[in-house]
Automatic annotation (TrEMBL):
Residues 5-44 form the F-box domain. It comes from Erythranthe guttata (Yellow monkey flower). It holds the Pfam family F-box. This is F-box domain-containing protein.
Length: 256
């Protein structure tokens, strides 16, 4: 510790910038010199995504006043902002500063849209959610360009929803795939349950009051090898029983 205490503050800042937000926060209690370095804009600027200014520039949400980059970091962790004409939301994973996006219901490709209502929901960050009235088959697709996501990062896609009723809603199939030049180059699929059971891939309650079901995992290498777009689908086309009561907020892509 004495060796570190003798280092110039600039050196301490450089070292801390190679760690994580959690490490920098812990280091700030070690000494006044560490506190000054650990709370500096240089360190927290390194924890923010390289394109954070570009992302924020598309925000339609009022941003909280942030005097420092540390304040901005935690604001983006705790308060998702609406971007791209309020069609998507963006926030940071507090653990590592990785980018998280949700594609809102209005931006999803939903088959048989005449069987859905788009309506406000007080719990949603978006102006409208998709509410299923009555249908036999379900097909919902969300996509995002790989360049928007954090590079060299393991992600998962999640359907974010509520269930007002369980009419005909039991199980579903999900697919996550990469597209290059509109052609699929890899995909994973799984079966999931809307019901809350203790086994299998099931829906779980989120901290914001919604529920989610994991649709699939993928590695975003952001290179020609990994494709240009990642798609996540949820389908239920094998049981023609009438279905209703599903409320969809969006599909979220976030780091594991």
């Amino acid at each position: 510790m004495d060796c570190f205490a003798r280092l110039p503050e600039g050196c301490i800042s450089e070292i801390l910038s190679l760690t994580s937000a959690l490490d920098a926060t812990r280091a700030s209690i070690l000494s006044k010199q560490f506190k000054s370095a650990a709370e500096g804009d240089y360190v927290w600027g390194r924890f923010l995504p390289p394109d954070y200014r570009e992302i924020i520039s598309t925000s339609v949400s009022p941003l909280l006043k942030c005097d420092t980059k540390k304040d901005l970091y935690f604001s983006l962790c705790d308060s998702p902002i609406l971007i791209n004409g309020a069609k998507m939301s963006f926030y940071l994973d507090k653990r590592n500063g990785k980018k998280c996006f949700m594609v809102g219901a209005r931006e999803l490709a939903i088959s048989w849209k005449g069987c859905w209502d788009f309506t406000p929901n007080a719990k949603s960050r978006f102006s409208e959610v998709a509410k299923l009235q009555s249908i036999g088959w379900i097909h919902i697709q969300g996509k995002i360009t790989t360049r928007m996501l954090s590079q060299n990062t393991n992600y998962a896609a999640y359907m974010v929803f509520l269930l007002e009723r369980m009419d005909g809603l039991r199980s579903s199939k999900t697919i996550v795939r990469f597209l290059k030049n509109h052609q699929s180059i890899s995909n994973t699929s799984k079966n999931g349950n809307f019901e809350s059971r203790e086994t299998g891939k099931i829906a779980r309650t989120r901290g914001d009051g919604w529920m989610e079901i994991e649709m699939g995992k993928f590695y975003n290498g952001y290179s020609e090898e990994y494709g240009e777009v990642v798609e996540a689908w949820l389908t239920e086309i094998h049981n023609p029983e009438g279905k209703s009561g599903l409320v969809v907020e969006g599909i979220e892509f976030r780091p594991l």
